[in-house]
């Protein structure tokens, strides 16, 4: 029998802060790029088409001596049952012995590491002088993308929000997002007044909703997409040279958020080649014959390590296709388990 | 946050008894045969060749409204660290909502459901008048195979044990197995004196070790193989008509316990066609060209349901290739969770 730590959602939220998660996710990408991490095949199962599915993402971080998995299920009709639609669990084990180390609530880990991923794409691929972020999608994930991007892109001074389904929701989002960022993310730094002030100040910028996606896209320096879309929301002809895309929404076959023609001539980076080709934003441009898999310049970890240049000029269009990989979850979870142990958070049970 | 039951190894051992597990595993096979169960692809990863690996088996039992997975890791060098070589966990979730129901220690579940599987193969495929069981392998799994088989095959009056690596261990095993069966399995029925007496009596038969595998195989009616062998231990020419094999050991590429030529002309049944072809005892006879996958008569569930005849004559050689499927684990785990809730066993934590 093994002592085994269970960390629930409240404890995960208490432990994680965005700047830490950005560091952890960068580390995960770097481990992958130095062959200190292996992704296992993705398992995806649809219980009922368009209504309920689950996936199991798993892998091994030799560089951190852990392996494990994240199981996430999505049940679209859960809201009517007073349950969250998305439920996730991360399981971490010691890769030197197979001994289980812990199980953690996975929703907040997923949100945080996904926000970090979009921002890391912008940090390493967008023009340093990028001033205008267009956030497409104003759902649960949008605040995570915005906060993380503001933290790593110091010149951003305006965030425009577009919701393809409801302008009203975009307006409400734009009105509340500053408070949301303070409450959800900046409040974590209360113990460190200088850091708190720094990040709070970073949120004092312009947030505006738009119902004119074309105008917003024409003006944007960085575009982050985080929607469940299955058709392109952004057209190629709107995009000025030098724009960066972090494509977050596409994580299963058939999903697409931006014009496949944008991929021709863009510098394309992914978190994992195989996942990107199978289920990412990269899937359809390949299937439609716009590009071949060889158009992928590299995995993002290679850019972080300086092995491959990201942007090569101010006029490059850069794309980061983030499908979400188990290594992000596992390394974030490992960080949480270490903190939880130090702080005495979570329950320790025998397995 | 969700209340979530953690059932450790001691509680699993307290709850499970072999006759119940045999019923549960039969039920799992039947659900699979009536399309009330889906296996997801098997994930296998070798940390270090021949020294450490792990697999994730997962699936969905619509018929029981659960889905989930079992993660089992094997670290050959753990004994030196005072840790078990095999460590497993089963995770069960509600397939109507995605809500996690529990996590359970997986080792004992695996041992019990594997024992049940071998016995179910014999129950449905061996000659009813089978008197002599040859158990090849005297490791951790052997007592589970023997107990379950004695429970379902009432005519068995002699068990011969062969250990391909050490006759001494076979001798020691044969000397202690009766007590082991009583302690480990029959003692579960202490609360029901009639049942206790019935199963205790079933263990009063002859147990003998042999170092002459040929003579034992020539005489056997039922042969169960549960070794990590990678070469055949049983030759075709030794086997008399009417013999039944339950092949348990082969669960990864390259493993083999019996002569591939036995497959030509045998009635071959499997737990899951794809797993059997990929990693089961069926793998090498196909790769060596002795049979094609079409030689598989059916999955065992079809026999249990009477959809496909098992043995068609007293002279058939029958083979059950049991690779071990997640559905066995998940349904056994679901049974445990139900019992644990009723009996107040395990810890309930928030996830």
Give me the secondary-structure topology.
The structure is a homodimer of 351-residue chains.
Chain A: E1 3-7, H1 9-15, H2 18-33, E2 38-39, E3 43-48, E4 52-61, E5 66-75, E6 86-94, E7 100-105, H3 107-125, E8 132-136, H4 142-152, E9 158-162, H5 167-184, H6 193-202, E10 206-209, H7 213-219, E11 222-225, E12 230-234, E13 244-247, E14 256-258, E15 267-270, H8 273-279, H9 283-287, E16 296-299, H10 300-304, E17 318-321, H11 326-343, E18 347-350
Parallel strand pairs in A: 1-7, 8-9, 8-11, 9-10, 11-13, 12-14, 13-17, 15-16, 15-17
Antiparallel strand pairs in A: 1-18, 2-4, 3-4, 4-5, 5-6, 6-7
Helix pairs in contact in A: 2-3, 2-11, 3-4, 3-11
How would you sum up this structure, described in words?
Two copies of one chain form a homodimer. The first copy, chain A, is α/β, with parallel strands linked by helices and 351 residues long. Chain A has two domains: 3-109 and 326-350, 2-Layer Sandwich (ornithine cyclodeaminase, domain 1), CATH 3.30.1780; 126-321, NAD(P)-binding Rossmann-like Domain (Rossmann fold). In chain A, 35% of the residues lie in helices and 27% in strands. Chain A is built from eleven helices and 18 strands. The first copy, chain A, has helices spanning 9-15, 18-33, 107-125, 142-152, 167-184, 193-202, 213-219, 273-279, 283-287, 300-304, 326-343; strands at 3-7, 38-39, 43-48, 52-61, 66-75, 86-94, 100-105, 132-136, 158-162, 206-209, 222-225, 230-234, 244-247, 256-258, 267-270, 296-299, 318-321, 347-350. In chain A, the strands form three sheets. In chain A, strands 1, 2, 3, 4, 5, 6, 7 and 18 form an eight-stranded mixed beta sheet that branches. Chain A has an eight-stranded parallel beta sheet with strand order 10-9-8-11-13-17-15-16, sandwiched between helices. In chain A, a hairpin with a 5-residue loop joins strand 6 (86-94) and strand 7 (100-105). In chain A, helix 2 (18-33) crosses helix 3 and helix 3 (107-125) crosses helix 11 (326-343). The first copy, chain A, is globular, with a radius of gyration of 19 Å. The termini of chain A are close together. In chain A, 55% of the residues are buried. The mean pLDDT of chain A is 96. At the A-B interface, strand 3, strand 4, strand 5, strand 6 and strand 7 of A face strand 3, strand 4, strand 5, strand 6 and strand 7 of B. Chains A, B: One of its GO terms (biological process) is carboxylic acid metabolic process. Chains A, B: Belongs to the ornithine cyclodeaminase/mu-crystallin family. Chains A, B: It comes from Brevibacillus fulvus.
